[in-house]
Specification:
Distance between the termini: 22 Å
Shape: globular
Largest sheet: 7 strands, parallel
Helix content: 40-55%
Number of strands: 7
Strand order of the largest sheet: 4-3-2-1-5-6-7
Length: about 190
């Protein structure tokens, strides 16, 4: 995206699973991302909770005395899906409201491995960027090739003329948090 290297990023929104996944590398990468954000004094906006990869990232960012903000839809609290969060909590009514607030409060987005909810969040931000609703960097942390199939599909959609080359550039991919920070032009 144009201007990414000169943009000041103070708050990252992280989309990721409430599960840890099969590969321990996912957990290690989530902890490392928390370290990278904390050391660079970057605050966190996320889906809330301390489970899975969300818990890994949020716990480490909080340990670095950075702001951690979890946005919890009422359906999660009504069904006891989130019992405890790390940091401040904002309760919202709908998932759409949650994503809208995440978009408004964040300077950039990072997606780690996760399921349908994670993918929905990622694609909503890409769609909004394509529609010029925002111009914030959107990244995937492609740990151990987790997003290879997705990235291949997106490239296939470009080849088939369903996604433009310009729109394809909205999605930034990196294999480590350090590589991602370099691609965004952030420094310690």
């Amino acid at each position: 995206m144009k201007g990414v290297s000169v943009r000041k990023i103070k708050k990252f929104c992280v989309f990721c699973g409430a599960n840890s996944g099969k590969d321990v590398a996912f957990v290690n990468a989530a902890f490392h991302l928390g370290e990278v954000l904390g050391k660079r004094k970057i605050d966190l906006v996320y889906g809330g909770g301390r489970l899975g990869l969300m818990g890994c990232v949020s716990t480490v960012v909080a340990q670095h005395q950075r702001q951690v903000l979890g946005l919890i839809p009422s359906v999660f609290t009504e069904n006891n899906l989130v019992r405890e969060i790390c940091g401040k909590e904002i309760k919202v009514v709908t998932m759409h409201e949650r994503l809208l607030i995440m978009m408004e409060l964040s300077d950039a987005f990072i997606t780690l491995p996760g399921g349908f909810g994670t993918l929905e969040e990622l694609f909503q931000m890409i769609s909004w960027a394509q529609l010029n609703i925002h111009d914030k960097p959107i990244c995937v942390l492609n740990i151990n090739g987790f997003f290879n199939g997705l990235l291949s599909f997106v490239d296939h959609a470009v080849e088939q003329k369903f996604i433009t080359q310009r729109a394809r550039k909205i999605l930034i991919s990196a294999t480590t948090a350090d590589e991602l920070v370099d691609k965004l032009g952030l420094s310690i």
